[in-house]
Amino acid sequence: MCNTPTYYDLGKAAKDVFNKGYGFGMVKIDLRTKSSSRVEFSISGHAYTDTGKASGNLETKYGIQTIFVPNTGKKSGKLKASYKQDCFSLGSNVDRGFSGLTIYGWAVWLAGYQMSFDIAADIQLHTHVNDGTEFGGSIYQKVSEIERSINLTWTAGSNNTRLALLPNASWIAELLYLPKIYNASLIGLGYTQTLQLGVTLTLSALIHGKNFNGGGHKVGLGFELEA
């Protein structure tokens, strides 16, 4: 018997380590709440410091998923369905069309559009191929409260290989410190502090290692509110 994850859960641990706690070159605020009738609301706003542009997003969930962007008028609707049993996971999305995702598990391998392999209980290896042109993989490890991750992506027909390394994500009480290193001599730093229950402050910075005195560095500020 095996426990097959959904398509969107493949490599999720490594993605979360790299994406959460960073907001280079922007000021953002996120608000999540749920009404007594179990309707979920997610509101987010972003202001970019280098361009001065701002954007906002409102998302509600109640059976179907709806998205509305106030500043552009863009909206969409999605109806999702999924079926899961031992060693098999099937999902479908209806959004003016139809798309399906299928994953089949055998032993410790999971095959579909992407693939994942658990080397040990605390190590995850994930590989993917997109459109037959982009190849990538990630390694994620968690020991106690320390997380480490490596992401590697290569595009066919291009000499550009993207490598990102996150040596550790250190939790100290309610504080999270996140260093991140790219092969383009970029160093990312993230600092997350829980101010009180449901209120989180995030500070981040992207430093150009090759041109430290030349400027071009980015900083970010974020608030997360949950009620």
From TrEMBL:
Highest taxon of the lineage: Eukaryota
Keywords (A to Z) from UniProt: Acetylation, Ion transport, Isopeptide bond, Membrane, Mitochondrion, Mitochondrion outer membrane, NAD, Nucleotide-binding, Phosphoprotein, Porin, Transmembrane, Transmembrane beta strand, Transport, Ubl conjugation
Main location: mitochondrion
Reaction catalysed by this enzyme: K(+)(in) = K(+)(out); chloride(in) = chloride(out)
Matches recorded under InterPro entries: Porin_dom_sf, Porin_Euk, Porin_Euk/Tom40
UniProt-annotated location(s): Mitochondrion outer membrane
Gene Ontology MF terms: nucleotide binding; porin activity; voltage-gated monoatomic anion channel activity
GO cellular component assignments: mitochondrial outer membrane; pore complex
Assembly and interaction partners: Interacts with ARMC12 in a TBC1D21-dependent manner. Interacts with MISFA.
Record function comment: Non-selective voltage-gated ion channel that mediates the transport of anions and cations through the mitochondrion outer membrane and plasma membrane. Forms a high-conducting channel with a stable open state and a voltage-induced closure with a mild preference for anions over cations. Involved in male fertility and sperm mitochondrial sheath formation.
Family statement drawn from the similarity comment of this UniProt entry: Belongs to the eukaryotic mitochondrial porin family.
Protein name per its UniProtKB record: Non-selective voltage-gated ion channel VDAC3
